[in-house]
Amino acid sequence: MESQNLYDGLPTAPETDEHFDSLLTKPNLRVERIVSSGQASPPDFWYDQCEAEWVVLLKGSAGLRFFDEERVRELKPGDWLYIAPHRRHRVEWTDAHAATIWLALHFHET
Amino acid sequence: MESQNLYDGLPTAPETDEHFDSLLTKPNLRVERIVSSGQASPPDFWYDQCEAEWVVLLKGSAGLRFFDEERVRELKPGDWLYIAPHRRHRVEWTDAHAATIWLALHFHET
Prior knowledge:
Two copies of one chain form a homodimer. Chain A is mostly beta strands. Chain A has strands spanning 3-5, 19-26, 29-36, 52-59, 62-66, 73-75, 79-83, 89-94, 100-107. Chain A has no helices and nine strands.
């Protein structure tokens, strides 16, 4: 796939699971669209990823917490974060009333 | 810089030149925000890049042309494109009345 629109093919109603779509897959880089509709990480679950991630929230809102921080970061459209490899984090909440759209880049640091 | 908002620090009035801000710089990946305000590529100028690029238009509008295509692709918010290394292209126009915001990923294919 060479071109498309980020907002195409969105779920028309809230769904049980988040949607993950790979928009680009290269040896060193994967670009992914994530559509959330109220989901959160399971209790006590922390993402612990070998790859680095750069993620931007484009629509909706979400709460993201790093294991090494007390506070939950509230993300609004345009907010982006760099997540170093193995920096543990979880999604505390996503907007329950509208789609939350993320663009995530997964890549090896070196 | 570890986190920020894509829409922070936008020019408050149209400017002569485009704005380029590197949001992430890693050995294999550079994430860049580009803010255009009516600029276009100079006549007969074609970008010819060693690196691959994945670019999404987030706000505004633009016309992008590939050398190997006749038509100008009109981009609206959410439209993204993969540009292979050395695939020549140019920006024919960007919105003259509002900021056009792009998010561009530059990376080596292998």
